[in-house]
Amino acid sequence: MPTIKDIAQQAGVSPATVSRVLNNDATLAVGEETRTRVFAIAEQLGYKPARLKKLKREEQLSRKQIGLLMWSSLEDERDDPYFASIRRGIEHRCDELGLTISKVLRGSGGAELGTVNELDGLIVVGSIASEDVAQLYSRTDRTVFVNNADQPASCDCVSLHFEGGVRDAIAHLLEQGHKRIAYIGGDETVHRLVPGLTPIETIDPRRSVFRREMTERGLYHSEYDIASYWAPAGGYQGMLRLLEAGERPTAVLMGSDPMAAGALRALQENGVNVPEEMAIIGFDDIEISAYLHPPLTTVRAHTELMGRTAAQLLLERIEGREAAMHVKVNTKLIVRESSGANLSHSKSN
């Protein structure tokens, strides 16, 4: 049976160096040529083939350079932790897999075309036109889109199961006896990386599902369908507009938790009691939601899992999977006081 000494003799290095190379010792200062030679000789001699195969895979993955392209700015992430949580999931899973995120681009800052083709893979977070991304990075088979309204069939995509989340929220409000149910949320913008091209505006999936579900029940009213922007101030202003309606709704589904926080402020300032006079449901379940007054019923978005899934899909593509996969991550309804439910419970779609 071959030993470390046998490998060391053929490789022209010390047994200690062989041991550290085979164990992927990151502190070892040894050239790539020597490292590759040690692995090749060990494999040739049949030194612990099962373990060696695992070590060789880890060593190969450690060389892979991954890019992360996000539309949101750092300021956006501070205001709304949705995309920050996706990014953390990507970073944590890449760290576990031994993949290195060597470049982070912010599309909102004006990404330069032709700067990332040397990468082994690219994860795109946020709605950015896929044709623009293809100009930035030509390996569509190694591009993974996360939370992108533009989902090309040739690329892996990870998205949230918005449909189930909205259905669960509406069903919960109907169970509480509500018929006049409103929606306040932003809309979706597919951003462009190419200077001078106009962003593509489209209806956010939460709004689309709300309209369909309420219309099917004969309960949809256009005056209860409020478009605002994705921020607490957007929820605040949207709620003020809703309060001007002739017959106020008794419940409101908000497009995000930060918007719900703004809406609660507007209701408090106008003397509308929550949930007695108006029930509120948010979307995301960010940390502050449980500490609002009253605590916010919300649809939990497993954003960190979305990020982890994207990194896993990219690894599979790097290792040879040919067919593209589109994955939807489920949501979970977290019931608290703002929706008026007597029982505290959770429901997964």
Description of the structure:
With 349 residues, the chain is an alpha/beta fold. It has 3 domains: 4-61, 434 Repressor (Amino-terminal Domain) (Orthogonal Bundle), CATH 1.10.260; 65-160 and 304-329, Response regulator (Rossmann fold, 3-Layer(aba) Sandwich), CATH 3.40.50; 162-300 and 331-348, Response regulator (Rossmann fold, 3-Layer(aba) Sandwich), CATH 3.40.50. It has 12 helices and 15 strands. It has helices at 4-11, 15-22, 32-45, 49-61, 74-79, 82-97, 130-136, 162-175, 205-216, 232-243, 257-269, 303-318; strands at 65-70, 100-106, 121-125, 143-146, 156-160, 181-185, 188-190, 200-202, 225-227, 251-254, 279-284, 297-301, 326-329, 331-334, 346-348. A 7-stranded mixed β-sheet has the order 9-6-10-11-12-14-15, sandwiched between helices. Strand 3, helix 7 and strand 4 (143-146) form a beta-alpha-beta unit. Helix 1 packs across helix 2 (15-22) and helix 1 crosses helix 3 (32-45). 42% of the residues are buried. Keywords: DNA-binding, Transcription, Transcription regulation. Pfam families: LacI (PF00356), Peripla_BP_3 (PF13377).
